[in-house]
Design the sequence.
């Protein structure tokens, strides 16, 4: 076996635990692991090993996107096995460089959000549920439909916030508006959303008009930092799938803005991806492939990185809930729908884009299935409210 192929064999041997067969560009075939073959990897041409050694997640994903590597077998299970191995290219520090965007100014934040969310509403319509909710759903049963699970997620959040008709609710990073519209329809509250995505902003306005909710619901194309400079205070705040975009150094400012926007004795429900990991290991908060191709500037904080500024702002965490398995189920369903509409999306986006999003959706499902990351709901109180129920039953 040539020196080059030996290097690849060692990389895959140290990364994956499932039995597999590898075919190299020169016709050599290698079998790894014991038992029946679960995956067949074909490497069509040598890769740039310097790029692999610098950041294997980028190099191998790009090779898959460009069909330099082809995989016949369960991509998600391959990635799950890599996350379960501390010597794999996804876990070992020798295969990644620390590349964290430390601070996002408003212009950069807007560009990053529009890069991902302004791909086109029609693209997301192909694989999200009918409400266009692009965050972790809430499954009361594994047999729940995605539509039902997303409705349950919105209800779960609004129940935790204990909405009253007199409340004014703010949704920071409101997406396509499902939460604010549901809050107005079901609870009669006044609801405002803010987003940096022009595509989302335009669609939310159309949905508000169709639902005849102009008197109760509004959406603004606005950065959360600018919202915090205004005079309006809110009884309740929701922020779903947002803090992953603010940047490591901006997390304290994000929490500070939430405090400024809340009235005394107000509640904030923050829902987002968090790492139950070493607070001091920044390299675990970012992924080269996701940062370059999917969520530029993204950073996943540890639990401590959120809790410390919450405490520093003299706010109280009154409930914390892990929804890790719920996000795995959500991503599995998104991917199923993505594959179901593959040909339609392919005609518009092209094969490289499709393979890139396949890595993203399957890779993220693997992240949550392996327990590498978590998604949590943080219920935060500003001040002390002794009218809060004594049990968690009101949340169900």
Sequence:
């Amino acid at each position: 076996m040539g020196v080059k192929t030996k290097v690849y064999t060692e990389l895959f041997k140290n990364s994956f635990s499932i039995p597999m067969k590898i075919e190299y560009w020169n016709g050599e075939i290698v079998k790894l692991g014991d038992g029946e073959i679960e995956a067949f990897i074909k490497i069509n041409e040598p890769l740039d090993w310097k790029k692999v050694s610098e950041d294997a997640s980028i190099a191998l994903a790009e090779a898959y996107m460009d069909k330099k590597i082809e995989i016949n077998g369960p991509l998600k299970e391959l990635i799950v096995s890599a996350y379960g191995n501390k010597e794999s290219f996804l876990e070992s520090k020798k295969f990644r460089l620390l590349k964290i965007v430390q601070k996002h100014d408003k212009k950069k934040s807007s560009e990053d959000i529009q890069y991902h969310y302004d791909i086109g509403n029609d693209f997301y319509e192909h694989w999200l549920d009918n409400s266009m909710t692009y965050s972790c759903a809430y499954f009361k049963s594994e047999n729940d439909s995605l539509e039902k699970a997303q409705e349950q997620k919105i209800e779960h959040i609004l129940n935790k916030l204990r909405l009253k008709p007199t409340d004014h609710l703010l949704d920071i990073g409101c997406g396509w508006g499902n939460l604010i519209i549901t809050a107005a329809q079901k609870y009669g509250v006044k609801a405002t959303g803010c987003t940096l995505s022009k595509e989302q902003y335009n669609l939310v306005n159309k949905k508000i008009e169709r639902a005849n909710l102009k008197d109760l619901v509004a959406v603004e194309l606005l950065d959360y930092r600018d919202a915090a400079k205004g005079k309006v205070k809110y009884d309740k705040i929701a922020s779903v799938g947002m803090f992953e975009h603010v940047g490591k150094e901006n997390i304290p400012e994000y929490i500070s803005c939430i405090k400024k926007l809340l009235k005394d004795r107000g509640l904030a429900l923050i829902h987002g991806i968090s790492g139950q990991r070493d607070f001091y290991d920044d390299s675990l908060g970012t992924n080269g492939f996701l940062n370059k191709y999917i969520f530029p500037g993204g950073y996943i904080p540890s639990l401590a990185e959120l809790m410390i500024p919450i405490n520093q702002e003299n706010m109280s965490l009154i409930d914390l809930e892990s929804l890790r398995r719920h996000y795995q189920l959500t991503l599995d369903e998104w991917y199923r729908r993505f594959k179901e509409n593959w040909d339609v999306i392919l005609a518009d986006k092209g094969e490289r884009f499709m393979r890139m999003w396949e890595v993203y959706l399957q890779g993220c499902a693997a992240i949550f299935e392996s327990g590498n990351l978590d998604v949590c709901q943080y219920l935060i109180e500003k001040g002390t409210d002794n009218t809060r129920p004594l049990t968690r039953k009101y949340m169900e």
